[in-house]
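Record 1 of the preview.
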Amino acid sequence: RLGKHFGREIERLKDQLFTLCTDVEEAVHNAARAIKHRDANLARTVIEQDDTIDEEEVNVEEECLKILALHQPVAQDLRLVVAILKINNDLERIGDLAVNIAERAIFLADQRETPYPMDFITMAKKARAMLRSSIDALVKEDMKKAQAVLAADDEVDAMNREMYHIVEDGILEDPTQVKPLLHMLSASRHIERIADLATNIAEDVIYMIQGQIVRHRIEDYTANDKKADA
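->
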């Protein structure tokens, strides 16, 4: 592997990525709270802070390109920088999804409360935990933690399906609530997409560590892992 100077730059790059992840996590958390509490002001804060996330994403990308140009890494060092480039883009997309959720919250703030229980906070908490675990897996080069993120995606998918059934029943029961219910379903789908992107990050971490692309065959990969642990 490359020398100490490269190592220091990589550690600084990981710190930048971790800061970006923290800000993105906060945006997701606040967007979910804004939906739950119909808090338009909190939702606007999420939207305003997206500029900071975009700026951080650009800085990480520029640092990656500089490292590639100056050090010309190979093998696992190259996979690490490429993985960070891809993960950086996914984090920025998650920030955009938080903005979309916040926009749904602003609309819902002017609507009357619906009696239908949609647990955005728990769903968002699970998606954020997946996101944080995937970044931890990158920083620590922890294969098992990355694999656990792949398995956790099923929980968020199940919650999104449950949200769909709640909305479907709600529309049948009270057609006047179609618009707010569809906005709530849209927010649920955005959270589910955040979990998908966290899964993408975990896949990139596995690629970085093993040089093995697991995308499109997650079920086979996690099944094999369970057999190995048995």
